[in-house]
Amino acid sequence: MRYLLDTSVVSVPISQRPDPVLVRRLEERASECAIAAPVWHELVYGIGRLSRGRRRTALESYLRDAVQAVFPVLPYDELAARWHAEERARLESAGRTAPYVDGEIAAIAHANTLILVTMNARHFSGFRDLTVENWSSRASKR
């Protein structure tokens, strides 16, 4: 395993206009990817809030067949919790507050020595010792 996927990345293939560059990279590297337990929560919660209908059914199928069947879900464990707590304290003492869930995701990536793949790299920019990549076509044009 090499990569930890953020919710923003896992959601791209089912968006109204999927980024072909990101989708291709996901397909090429799927066997090297995992998701964090908080990402799984965000996906299940997001679908659970939708009204019953075709869109929700399609998303549930995607979640079951393309996400759960392909990507292992990594837990927020003691090692991740310790790193997260230390980083939160360090960032807060510097006057910065990172979103809690982003901190959990970053901690799981750090604890498992994985590269965090996200469309929102700035959400993770304050964390130390964390490698972040953006596989979108927007990032490759910079």
What are the salient characteristics of this protein?
142 residues, alpha/beta, Rossmann fold, 51% helix, 10% strand, globular
Explained architecture:
Helix 3 runs antiparallel to helix 4 and helix 5 crosses helix 6. The protein has one domain: 5'-nuclease (Rossmann fold), CATH 3.40.50.1010. By secondary structure, the protein is of the alpha/beta class. Strands 3-2-1-4-5 form a five-stranded parallel beta sheet. The protein contains seven helices and five strands, in the order βααβααβααββα.
- How many structural domains in the coordinates? 1
Classify the beta-strand content into a percent band. 5-15%
- The CATH homologous superfamily corresponds to 5'-nuclease
- In terms of per-residue confidence, which ranges show pLDDT below 50 for 5 or more consecutive residues? none
How many helical stretches? 7
